[in-house]
Design a protein that fits this description.
489 residues; binds adenosine-5'-triphosphate; non-membrane spanning protein tyrosine kinase activity; single chain; nucleotide-binding; serine/threonine-protein kinase; five-stranded antiparallel β-sheet; binds magnesium ion; 16 helices; three-stranded antiparallel β-sheet; globular; 12% strand
């Protein structure tokens, strides 16, 4: 094996090479972080680089001699950092518009902490490992965590370990902001049981129990706004597409795969652990359900600035009554009803009720209807808290706190939703008209078949047990007839 070159003649070469390495690292950072983040972080990294340049990066070996053991170690570290930062630039869209902030709340413009006075920084691998509590980074990473996150984890750890200094015999460990940011992103939240999953044996196993005490709660601090924004670094925001009561939804481009998604985030910060757990129920329900053509696709979720972000399939629009009220014929609504009934059958068979079926929560993508917004989803067996959705779409029994037939609540909500779509104007907030509807007293709908009107009536029967199940609904011959009519036209 080729060993390191010796002697003074290598000094100049070594210095040049060091500069090359430094330049190369800076270039990688420039490429990877994009201009905006570069502005914010370059000073931090530059500081690191500058401080490194005052000490021996490769104290006893030539930097050009990568065959030496020590250099192999350093080279490995360098490659790891490189691996992390190497997001292909060619698919990276324009950086977000505001250069000095990564978040509109300006929560991420955190000053880099002052480095402690450095007498000597040692970068040998052995010493970097010394004194760092491995347990403090030993949170288990769950299987689905992305491989890229693992490499970031490694990178962040290296960064943290590197930032250890020695002064007057005392060891000072400080953690750079960039390292904190990276660590924040890769530290998994504590493993919490998904209460929507049917398999009880899974619920009994908590492989991360050991770590509970070390990371109680959902990391209110580390998932805060003091680091890089995952939203900003992974996505390019295109436009706002929805405004719910508690959340905002944006159309985004995912930088790494070049595809469009919808990202929904809570409008206010979830400071309390209970609030965060409650918010998590939406994604737990989506994740437990798995994919179905008529349910909005779920990709990923994370906490950032104490807000929950959910990456979902992007749909074209919702059936929100104001915009599309004129478009619905009986055949149209029957098609929508048939598809949403399939979604309901799917979720009810998994023991879950949606509890917020309404036009705003039915999305359309390429003519396919999809049920979304699982923020009120609960278990049919009432083992989870029940928080009903929009009161206008709720049957009387829910308002009376009778939760015996939660699947039939969804059937009522779908019935009144379809009625609203056919009528083409919003339901009243309250009053006799709404009370009548809750009692199944529908006004006649001229121009619509009696079969259709009777179906709506039975879906909105005040007695939940008389309402059809989603499966029974799907077997209704009206859908077959509507399809034939559409074909013959
Ligand atoms: N995946 C998506 N694709 C396209 N638009 C979406 C998507 N998700 C949500 N929207 C739009 O954003 C709006 C608000 O989203 P969502 O209903 O999930 O928020 P919310 O705060 O839970 O709403 P609310 O509590 O008012 O029902 C939807 O009505 C819809 O118009
Ligand atoms: Mg909604």
């Amino acid at each position: 094996m080729k060993r390191k070159a010796q002697g003074n003649s290598n000094r100049i070469q070594k210095k040049k090479s060091k500069q090359r390495m430094k330049g190369s690292l800076a270039r990688h950072l420039t490429v990877q972080l994009g201009q905006q983040q570069q502005i914010q972080n370059s000073s931090r990294f530059q500081n690191l680089l500058d401080s490194d340049s005052e000490t021996e990066l490769f104290p006893s070996t030539s930097p050009l001699d990568f065959d030496s053991d020590a250099n192999i170690t350093d080279e490995k570290d360098f490659i790891l950092s490189q691996d992390f930062f190497c997001t292909p630039d060619y698919i990276t869209p324009d950086p977000p518009a505001v250069p000095s902030t990564l978040d509109c709340n300006n929560e991420e413009t955190i000053q880099c902490p002052k480095s402690p006075e450095k007498l000597k920084t040692v970068r040998s691998k052995r010493q970097r490992l010394d004194g760092i509590s491995e347990t403090s980074f030993s949170f288990s990473i769950s299987a689905p965590q992305e491989a890229s996150e693992l490499s970031m984890y490694t990178s962040a750890n290296n960064d943290i370990k590197t930032a250890k200094t020695y002064e007057s015999g005392k060891i000072h460990s400080y953690v750079s902001q960039s390292a904190v940011a990276l660590r924040c992103r890769v530290m998994p939240p504590p493993c919490i049981k998904n209460p929507y999953l049917q398999d009880a044996s899974i619920l009994d196993i908590d492989p991360f129990d050991n770590h509970r005490s070390k990371c109680a709660g959902l990391y209110p601090a580390v998932i805060g706004g003091d680091g890089l924004s995952r939203y900003r670094s992974d996505f390019h925001e295109i436009e706002k597409i929805g405004d719910g009561n508690f959340s905002r939804v944006f159309k985004v481009l995912k930088r790494i795969d070049g595809c469009m998604y919808a990202v929904k985030h809570s409008t206010r910060q979830l400071h309390k652990d209970t609030e965060r757990r409650k918010a998590l129920m939406e994604i737990q329900a989506l994740a437990a359900l798995g994919s179905h053509e008529n349910i909005v696709g779920y990709y990923s979720s994370w906490f950032e600035n104490e807000k929950l972000y959910i990456q979902m399939e992007l749909c074209d629009h919702s059936l929100s009554i104001n915009k599309f009220s004129n478009l619905f014929t009986e055949a149209d609504v029957l098609e929508a009803m048939h598809q949403i009934a399939k979604a309901l059958q799917f979720i009810h068979e998994q023991g879950i009720a949606h509890l917020d079926v309404k036009p705003d929560n039915i999305y359309v993508k390429n003519g396919v209807y999809k049920l979304g917004d699982f923020g009120c989803a609960t278990r049919l067996d009432r083992s989870l808290p029940i928080e009903e959705g929009d009161a206008r779409y709720m049957p009387q029994e829910i308002l009376n706190e009778n939760y015996d037939c939660l699947d039939k609540v969804d059937i009522f909500s779908m019935g009144i939703t379809i009625y609203e779509l056919v009528r083409g104007s919003s339901l009243p907030e309250s009053g006799t008209q709404l009370l009548n509807l809750r009692e199944g007293k529908l006004p006649l709908m001229p121009g619509h078949s009696m079969q259709f009107q009777n179906l709506l009536k039975v879906m909105m029967d005040p007695d939940p047990t008389r309402r059809p199940s989603a499966r029974e609904l799907l077997e209704n011959p009206i859908f077959e007839r509507a399809r034939k009519d559409t074909k013959n036209k």
